[in-house]
Structure formats: structure tokens, C-alpha cells
Amino acid sequence: MDIQEVERGVYRVGKGEESIFLRFYEGYVRVSSSLSRPSSLYSPIIALPSPKEAKVKNERGSICLTSEDIEAKIGEDLALSFSFQGKKTFSSFPFQRKKEGFSHNGEVYGDEVSFPLRDGDHFYGVGDHAGPLDKRNYEVINWNTDYVYAHVEVVKSLYKSFPFFLSKNLDVFWGLFLDNPSKTLFNFGVDCEKCLFSSKEGGMDFYLFFGDVKTIMKNYTSLTGRPPLPARWTLGYHQSRWSYDSEEKVRSIVKGFIDNDLPLSCIHLDIDYMDSFKVFTIDKKKFPNPEKLFSDLSSLGVHVVAILDPGVKKEEGYDVYEEGMKERHFATENGVPYVGKVWPGESLFPSFNDEGCAKWWGEHVKSFAKRGISGIWCDMNEPTSFTGELPGDVSFAGLPSSLAHNIYGDKMAKATYDALDSLGKRPFLITRAAYVGTCRYSTVWTGDNQSIWDHLRLAIPQEISLGLSGMPLVGTDIGGFCGDTTPELLTRWIGLGLFSPLMRNHCPFYNRPQEPWTFTPKVTDDYRKALRLRYRLLPYLYDLAFGNVTAGLPFMRPLFMEFPREERLSTINDEFMEGESLLVSPVVEAGTEKKLVFFPKGKWYDFFSGKLYEEDSIVEAPLGSIPLFAREGSIIPLAEEGEYDLDKSPDVLILKAFLGQGTLTHYEDEGEGKGYENGEYNLIRFTNLNGKVEGTYLHHGYRDYKKIIVEFEGDRKEISIK
Ligand code: GLC
Fold first, then answer.
1. CA atoms within 13 A on the CB side of 204
2. What's the CA-to-centroid distance between 242 and ligand 1, angstroms?
3. How confident is residue 99, by pLDDT bands cut at 50, 70 and 90?
4. Is pLDDT above 90 for 533?
5. CA distance linking residue 415 with residue 420, whole number of Å
6. Catalytic: 128?
7. Which is the catalytic residue, given 179, 245, 270, 379?
8. Do you find a cis peptide bond into 383, omega within 30 degrees of 0?
């Protein structure tokens, strides 16, 4: 077996064709089966630093490469074995080249890497696949799919593709990103013996990340991207329905919120606002003066998000269709524009991966947004056609479907984002299909769930898994999409939804409405309580958004992310940490008034009553209550009660402190626009010693709060910052 440094820091190991290439970086390694990637293979990697030199040692039968904390051993048959800081991490069976490609459920996959499944191995991530948080013994196929039936754990493909997973064995973590947008297979030990991953096309090219779980997230997201800072209003409450289909209806829904004293930051317009489902149109009969409507709503602090599907209606005289045809922006089959079927009937699919097409789409987005629309909802972008999956020979500006499919939603989001971004505000998008890196452009929701308890339960691991896959701004349809939700289910769902970064209630016209006042007064009261808590928590959530920008850590975290040494916390599906200070344990079972809460070691305080917990406990959780606990010593930044207008920054900051010792890094800016990029923000470091809270500016580029009040064990005291 040979080893050769083919370029500075690039090591080829093996014999001729049977070689692999290794590159070492700080905390991660890249392994690939060829020196350079085919240019047709999209990669979300933003920029790679120069690889580091490694020390090479030839041992009997194997080659050993060491670079700082990482040691790689490569056996005769290209079996790989990595250690980080002396601890064994990933080790594989011999590398299987494409010529030995294997067939799986009728599909032939290429290069394959397999590794033993060991006792205590846990696997997390891979996007929002249904099922438990730990994917051990499950298989996932990354192929964006609009799966219209119930999302249950045996479903291998849903709307998004995140070929990234995190492995945990006791306190040893490693992460793996398979940098390949074709169909990829991840088997986490279905046969209980070995795991494997493989891609249909493009060879093997993957990154292994080492270190503690937060370092892995930081490195993975610094390579593949993090969301820009969201506008503050986007963290407020969103109400949606398929569809609020007239000006009158929209106004009456907003009035419903006002009359019931329910905060509302955004209303979503589903497909029926359009004229015959033609993108970039607004039905004049149903919305005679949309500009006036949108500006009236804006003066009430309500933003408007409108849906755009990729399918462009095939209709002579429709400008978007005619331009797209003339400028050849649509996907083709055998050189002829491909016609599928979506809401408008016969429809064509723009090739968003083509720069010209993206610009053209973007111009339409800009004029559309200028009518008073704050954000865009990108849907059906797997892409979905009612005639079935787009045939394999469909080409997107020369890119075959096999390589364009999984990134279609990502490219649609990018084209839309770039256009909105050029308008100077922080863009807001929500997309159903996504790929690694889509977080740079958009939030996501988990698609068409159902109004069933199973899907409320599922929402927790789905949202956490998305966060672990590098997609932190997530939500599920609160109340459930398909099916008639019940008062109890909706109440429990909002108890979870208030912690989702994207908080949106959505359902279709063919099921019962889900605005809270359409149920009983008790539902409205409980819903209001949840919404009020959400708006009080806004400063904390905004801090989490800032923390995500700087460190790549999700809002909703598995318990093991904060407490990696407690093995018993590795598989908890119905509890999570919201940031590092709050533990949330929503009730996700029908007819239950109690909840078993697993408390990590240490002291925990009921957020509302201050009751102390030091071990796993069954807590009272009647309908309408929100089981929420604060970590000892934490400081939770809150808005004042009733502060619903998220378009202006709050004058008063409340710091709710809990007994113990802790710190908080608090971020504040105008909540919109790009001023923060020029230093127009404040960063304050607060310390807490048993309720004595002090603050110092780490950065002082924005106006001061008029008042900062510390709340501790029922007392309120004003403080000022040094
Ligand atoms: C899709 C979306 C859903 C939307 C509907 C109509 O099913 O997932 O959210 O309401 O299309 O646009």
C-alpha cells in the first residue's frame, strides 16, 4: 500500500484506482474516493481552510497519519480507523468501491462505507425523518419526497435530505456529513450488526467531525452554513390556513386575534390568494386592494407571508409562463420543456440551479414582495407533481434529475432569498423541501403532519433532529395539518409549539378550523397563556438566534447536548432543552394530567412557582399548564407582559434569575434590517450569584434599555449596566 502527499496536505492512500484521499483540518477530516469532485455534484461547503500537514508512519500492514488531535489508521484493504485525543471514534470495515456497488430494494448504490454497530451506539440527525430521536436500527433514504400518508417511523424518505448524522457512545461523539446530493442511503444497523452509508452517484466524499457535541455542531455548521439573524417578528406567532382566501377572511381572522387578546405577528396566505394558482398573481376579485390590506395589517404589527410553488401554470398569455418558455428557464425532457401537474393543472418547473433562471425568478419575487409581502413560503418543491415523481431523464439546465432533485427546494429557497435580501430587510422564508445548507436562506416546517397524538409526540424528535442536522429554525403545523384536531390536542400542541423557533398553526380547508376561538373559551384562555409566554420569552429566543449565528447551536436541543455524560439522557424523546437554561417537558399523551420529567443532575426550578427539583419526578401537568424548568443559576431574559409588537425593540428587559451561579450573554438590536452588520447592536454579559445580577457591555453599539429589572424569588429590583 502506498501513501503519497499529492498536494500540500492531501494524502492519497492505497493502490492506484483503489485509493482514497484524506485531508486533515482542525477537529475534522475529509475522506474522498477521488482527488476532485465532479463539477456537477453540488456541495454546500462554503469554504474550506487549507488542509494541515500530517505525520506519516508506516506500520506493519497499515499506514498511520497524525495531525494534531486526530490520528487515522488505514489498513491494507482501506479499512479506516480514527482516534481523537487518544479516544477511538469512527472505524470502518474495508472500503467498497463502486465496482462492487450493491443493490438495495431494486436500486444500485455506489461506493459504500460500512462500520460495526457496537453496544451503546446512538445515531442522531439526518433531518426530520419520522421516528425516535435515536436512529439506531433504522434506515433512512435521502430523497426528497412528498409522502402524503401518515409520517411514521417506517417511512424512509420525507421532504428533506440531510446526509449528516451524529454518533454518540457514552461521552464520545463524532459526526459524519456525506457531501453528496444524489440519493443516499444511511443504514444505522437494521440487521443489528453493521451500519453503512452510500450514495447512488458521484463517489464517496465525506467529512468526519470530532470532539464534544457542541464543537462538532460548530465545525459542521461553519462548513455548511448557519442562518443569518432572523427579523425579530419572525419569532412571533404565525397563523395560517389553506386558505384565508379573501381580503374579508384575512381581516376577520386578524380581528379574531385582536378581539380575543391573542398576539399575532404574521398571517400566511396559502394558494387560494392567487389567480388560478398562477405564481406571482393575486386574485383581484378576492383581494381587490392587496396593497391597502397589507399596509393595514402592517400597522397592526401583522406581517404577511405568501406561498409560492415552483410549478408555473402552462397558459398562453401568462407572463411568467411565456418568459420562462422564451428564456428556456424550465426543466426539460429530451430537450422539450417538461410538463407536470400541480395545483394550476399543467405546470412547468423552473431550473433554479441555473443562475439566469434564479435571477429571473428573483425579479418576480422582488416585484411581488414590494406589494407589501414580508416573507415567502416555498412549497411543493421536492419537486412534487401529481403525475408522480419527475422522470429520471428530466434535466434542470443540464443537471440530471438524479443530482438536481434533492437540491431543488434549496435552490428555490436561495433564488427567493437572494431577491428578498436585495430589498434591504432580513428575508423571511419557510420551505418544505431542503438540503444541507438551506438554513442560510430559509426556515423549514415538517410538512403535512396529522392531527393525531402520535404526530404531536413525533414533532419533538423531528425538530431536535433538524437542529442537529444544522437546520435550527424549524416548526411543525401546530394542531396538526390533516384531520380534525381536538381541543385537548391543540392545547397540548401549543404547549410544545411555543418553544418551536417557527411557531405556526396551519390546517387545510377540508378540516375544522384551528383558530383557538373556534373551540371552547378554555382553549382560547390556554392558548393565550401559551402565546403570552412566547412573547415574554422573545428576548431569550432572540439570544438563541444570535447564539446560533455564532456557534451553530440549535434552539431545541436534546438533553445530551447539555449533559453529555449522563447516558440515561441519550434516548429521551419527549423532553428537550430550549437553549442551555430551560428544560421543556411537554405533555404529549391524551388524557394525562401528570408528566414524568427526567431531570439531569443538578438543581432545577419550576419556571413559574420556583419549586425545586433534584431528581426525576412526576409533576402535575393539568391541561393548559406548561411544564417548564430553569437550570440553577440561570438568567432568563424576558419581555414585559403584553409586549406584543415585535417590530420595535423593547424598552424594558426583565432578567428572571434563579438560585445558583450562572451567566448570560444577551444580544439586542433593532430587530430588523442589517445595521447589526455595522456594529449597531449590544452584547451584554450578565452574571448571577444567587440573585445578585450584574451586567457589563461586551459590545455597545445600540440604544440602552430604559429599564433592566432583575426578578428573583418574587422580588423585583432595577439594575444598571457598567
Ligand atoms: C401542501 C403543503 C400545505 C399546503 C397545501 C396547499 O400540502 O404542505 O401546507 O397547505 O400544499 O398549498
1. 27
2. 7
3. low
4. yes
5. 9
6. no
7. 379
8. yes
